[in-house]
Amino acid sequence: MDVKIKNIRKEFARFPALHDLSLDIASGELIALLGPSGSGKTTLLRLIAGLEQPTEGKIFFGDQDASLKSVQERNIGFVFQHYALFRHMTVAENIAFGLKVRPSATRPPKAEIRRRVSELLDMVQLSGLEKRYPTQLSGGQRQRVALARAMAIEPSVLLLDEPFGALDAKVRKELRRWLREFHDRTGHTTVFVTHDQEEALELADRVVVMSQGRIEQVGSADDVYDRPGSPFVFSFIGESAELPVTLSSGQIIFQGHPIGAAEPGEGEGKLFFRPQDVVLTDEQDALFGKVTACRRLAGTRIAEIDIANHGHAYHVEIEVPLDAPVTLGAELRFRPTRWKVFLATQ
Amino acid sequence: MSETASRYRDPAGETAFWRVILTLIAVAFLGIVVVLPLVTVFYEAFRKGSDAFFEAFQEPDAIAAIRLTLTVAAIAVPLNLVFGVAAAWAVAKFEFRGKTFLVTLIDLPFSISPVISGLVYVLLFGAQSYLGPILKSQGIQIIFALPGMVLATIFVTFPFIARELIPLMEEQGTGDEEAALSLGASGWQTFWYVTLPNVKWGLLYGVLLCNARAMGEFGAVSVVSGHVRGLTETMPLHIEILYNEYNFAAAFAVATLLALLALVTLALKTILELRYGDEIAAGRKH
Q1: Helices (H) and strands (E) in chain B, counts
Q2: What are the angstrom distances between the C-alpha of B100 and each of B104, B211, B219?
Q3: Three-class SS of residue A17?
Q4: Measured between CB atoms, does B50 come within 8 Å of chain A?
């Protein structure tokens, strides 16, 4: 089912958490809400679920105005960050809960519930553990029980809050791949919240980058990484260097000195580039600074450079070829090959 | 090597000498203040033989006192159970104005002398009050009757269950409830299937303490009871009267019942703490 979020605003005790935010989620899409803590991503997820009420705005599930419905009526599957499994119930009872609490008119018969539970356990690869209690499971197993429990009610939308946040790195990677397959198999519209950009970029069809209660950019992994729409997105996603520059007569000027990169426009702005998008050069028009540290990172070498000029030191990291003569304290000249300038007025 | 080892002392520990002395002081204190009186109760009760002991329970007044005590507890404890769960639920799971005030209010009976709490009801419902004559004209008597004693008992014991549950529920947060709601459960189903099972041992612990106090309450009940023998006397009041009449054997015999209740409560409490310590520990702050 497709989800439309229209001009949502949310305040907590007069403190704004989300400012006038709109988002369209297509049916069957896997969407990541990515942002630092406090960016409002969890609030947005809880608003979609109906666990919070918006101060203003509407949320549509298909053509239906879901903002008028309670959390029970929305028929969503919510997987909580710490799973919120019922500790006094077995795995099977946890999964059956959503079916068991239905009014008798729509509640499936007991045998049917049992069949569904074992089907779901099979789907999350936990068959044989139905009699266990949540405390007797590993983190990854609990996560999958929580998912099976949410799927049991055949939700129209699946919502996951930091689904891999509480797991160790190895399990996290496995489950990530598993969730992608699970989504492709079941085809549910899925929204998950994460602060881990690697997770968001790898897993999601589209990434919604959020900051301070606003959506900064919505796009595919390629979009947000290669074509960041705002200074925040550029610095938040991946590694980047940031320098204050001036645009003048088609050139980027850094502290009165052209850096050998052409850019139309006039005025003050911020130059962003990625560590790997630079080339060492002997030309006069370039960025230059002292190498303060150098470290080997798998197949590449990262040089840390202090661009000291007029008393203020800017610290940037760039990738240099392994065979480049880079020595500590030496001066290095380089130019960005791909970059983006955000003018201050933008 | 051995010399340096022997000189080492646990920085937070005491020497053997002080350990023994401190332990002895503690044990002696406990013996004099707790164990000795308890033993005395049983000793005095059986001093004139077991016949005299059992005779004390044949007496109609004693039977009436036991029945009244059980009645008062049977009304007060369930009411406080409902109140305590409702108050803890409201305080722990919702944000509202005046929450701190409500928590302070719940603690009030702990800080007020029970005699005062009894007196308040006499002033509210007694013959000299505004409400008393009105109620009396309707044929309702509160003071010097069962309703007054139940009210006084409820007042004195109402913090026990709420106080036990509030920290426990606060610690558990609202995650489980939200999960249940998102799965389509109604508010009542969420409470019944999720919230209540999560606090059941803490709740039982609170009920035990509440019950022990309800049956043993003297001060507040004494003020509102009017001491009508065989009618408005609970066990603690009956014991006092027997004692004042120099009927020691009977007084101590009835006292053994209360003491036994205390011992049973203690035993159950210990079992609960041993088995479900983690869950109860959150609430053991008062």
Answers
A1: 16, 0
A2: 6, 26, 28
A3: strand
A4: no
Give the pLDDT of residue B1.
46
Q: Where in chain A is the domain with CATH 3.40.50.300?
A: 3-235
Q: Does B97 touch chain A (CB under 8 A)?
A: no
B60 contacts chain A (CB < 8 A): no
What pLDDT digit, counting tens, does each position of A294-344 carry?
888 878 889 999 887 666 788 899 998 888 778 888 888 999 999 999 988
Q: How far apart are CA A234 and CA B40, in angstroms?
A: 81
The structural architecture, per CATH, of the domain A239-343 is Beta Barrel (2.40)
Contact assignment for A84 to B179 by CB distance below 8 Å? yes
Nearest CA in chain B to A149: B183
pTM of the model: 0.80
* Residue type (1 letter), A263: E
ipTM summary value? 0.83
pLDDT in tens, A181-234: 889 888 899 999 999 898 999 999 999 999 999 999 999 999 999 999 999 999
Helix (H, G, I), strand (E, B) or coil at A136: helix
B222 contact partners, CB below 8 Å, separation of at least 6: B115, B118, B236, B237, B240
For B201, other C-beta atoms within 10 Å of its C-beta total 19
The rounded distance, in Å, linking the Cα atoms of B177 and B93 is 9
End-to-end CA distance of chain B: 49
For domain A3-235, the CATH superfamily is P-loop containing nucleotide triphosphate hydrolases (3.40.50.300)
